[in-house]
């Protein structure tokens, strides 16, 4: 039996309607192609413009930079300014802050900011300070605002960011602000210098299960060959590097590759910020600059005033051992008697120009510096 589909009267009408709608759609398409849009399509233009004026774009509620200058930044909603001009931001030093009113005792002044604007912000904004010295990420620092002839502490402090070089706090009013160090930093007098010293807990240098390429005396052929490979130098260059080590007491020189990240300290001064020589951290307090120069045989142009804690990353190659007596070497003096443990990372920085390799090492915190160094920064 053949299966045939009969066309009913209702179906015929439906098909006629479908044909009509199709023809109308084709006509509209043709009109648009000829540039003659239907009258109905032109009407929404003014309506869209009016809607945009009534309903501001989403960006108006987003966080934007409201002002920035002198290593300072103010971020918040544009509506926080109530339609007024942006604030002025300026850095103020310790002398200027203390001239307004005595600063709180027991804390070290770190940075100051003057936010000049009239009124109160409609919503809270974030004031970010670029720090004069890198600090441990996540550290909360006290912030004070000058009001009623006194410095008054904000309920919330400024938190140091992930990269250790900025700290941010929330404010609701313009005015003068003082960012201070917390009580882990003290002002001390060492070797005739006024220094800011970190006295809190410092991560200890732990070399966990490193790969040891060579271990032995400074004249061991295997050690010399490993130092040549690590430094990319010839035999004479490797032996020159090994003059900085003393293996006579039984402590071997080792060439190792880190399996895990490790913290370690660099002592420096002046322009010797970047370098490849480090010392273990943690345990006893930092030695004074004078002791540092002696036990780590620092050269004449390095007073060891500054101490920087860095993270040296896994896969870094280090040469470890005890520091040799360098008093008879050119560029050193009677102070450089050595004896302290040291770590040399030939690939941690590059020359020229002197720069750390961020793939190999990052800063964790500045542990010691001259107090005058912060005010000497020209923001």
Would you mind describing this structure in some detail?
The chain has 8 helices and 23 strands. The protein is of the alpha+beta class. The strands form 5 sheets. A 6-stranded antiparallel sheet has the order 1-2-5-10-9-6, with no helix packed on it. Helix 5 crosses helix 6. The termini are far apart. Residues 1-58 have low confidence and may be disordered.
Labels describing this entry:
8 helices; single chain; disordered N terminus; 32% strand; 5-stranded antiparallel β-sheet; 6-stranded antiparallel β-sheet; alpha+beta
Quote the average pLDDT.
Answer: 87
General shape: elongated
Task: Count every helix, treating DSSP H or I runs of 4 or more residues as helices.
Answer: 8
For the sheet with most strands, the description reads:
6 strands, antiparallel
Structural class, please? alpha+beta
- Provide the gyration radius in Å: 34 Å
Q: Estimate percent helicity.
A: 10-25%
Weakly predicted, low-confidence segments: 1-58
Give the N-to-C terminal Cα separation: 97 Å
Which sequence of strands runs across the widest sheet? Answer: 1-2-5-10-9-6
| Share in β-strands | 25-35%
Number of strands: 23
List the helices and strands and how they pair.
Elements: H1 9-33, H2 39-42, H3 44-54, E1 63-69, E2 72-77, E3 88-92, H4 94-100, E4 109-116, E5 125-130, E6 140-141, E7 143-147, E8 150-153, E9 158-160, E10 166-171, E11 175-180, E12 185-190, E13 193-198, E14 211-216, H5 221-231, H6 235-242, E15 253-257, E16 262-268, E17 277-278, H7 289-295, E18 306-312, E19 317-322, E20 341-344, E21 349-350, E22 355-356, E23 361-370, H8 372-375
Antiparallel strand pairs: 1-2, 2-5, 3-4, 4-11, 5-10, 6-9, 7-8, 7-11, 9-10, 12-13, 13-23, 14-15, 15-19, 16-18, 17-20, 18-23, 19-20, 21-22
Helix pairs in contact: 5-6
């Amino acid at each position: 039996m053949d299966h045939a589909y009969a066309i009913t009267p209702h179906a015929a009408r439906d098909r006629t309607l479908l044909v009509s709608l199709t023809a109308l759609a084709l006509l509209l398409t043709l009109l648009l192609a000829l540039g003659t849009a239907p009258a109905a399509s032109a009407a929404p233009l003014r309506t869209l413009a009016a809607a945009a004026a009534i309903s501001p774009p989403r960006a108006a509620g987003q966080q934007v930079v409201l002002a920035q200058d002198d290593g300072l930044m103010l971020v918040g909603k544009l509506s926080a300014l109530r339609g007024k001009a942006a604030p002025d931001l300026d850095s103020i030093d310790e002398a200027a802050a203390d001239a307004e009113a005595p600063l709180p005792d027991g804390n070290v002044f770190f940075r100051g900011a003057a936010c000049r604007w009239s009124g109160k912000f409609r919503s809270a904004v974030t004031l970010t300070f670029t720090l004069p010295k890198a600090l441990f990420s996540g550290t909360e620092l006290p912030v004070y605002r000058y009001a009623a002839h006194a410095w008054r502490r904000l309920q919330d402090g400024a938190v140091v960011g992930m990269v250790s070089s900025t700290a941010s706090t929330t404010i609701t009013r313009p005015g003068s602000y003082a960012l201070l160090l917390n009580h882990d930093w003290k002002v001390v007098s060492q070797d005739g210098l006024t220094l800011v010293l970190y006295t809190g807990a410092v991560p200890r240098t732990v070399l966990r299960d490193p790969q040891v390429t060579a271990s032995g005396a400074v004249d061991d052929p295997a050690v010399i060959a490993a130092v040549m490979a690590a430094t990319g130098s010839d035999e004479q260059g490797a032996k020159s590097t090994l003059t900085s080590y003393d293996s006579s007491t039984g402590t071997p020189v080792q060439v190792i590759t880190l399996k895990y990240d490790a913290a370690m300290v660099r002592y420096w001064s002046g322009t010797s910020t970047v370098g490849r020589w480090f010392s273990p951290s943690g345990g006893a307090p930092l030695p004074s600059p004078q002791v540092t120069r002696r036990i780590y045989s620092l050269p004449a142009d390095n007073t060891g005033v500054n101490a920087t804690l860095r993270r040296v990353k896994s896969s870094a190659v280090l040469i470890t051992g005890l520091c040799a007596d360098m008093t008879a070497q050119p560029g050193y003096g009677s102070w450089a008697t050595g004896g302290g443990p040291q770590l040399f990372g030939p690939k941690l920085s590059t020359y020229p120009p002197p720069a750390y390799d961020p793939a190999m090492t990052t800063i964790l915190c500045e542990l010691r510096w001259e107090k005058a160094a912060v005010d000497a920064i020209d923001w």
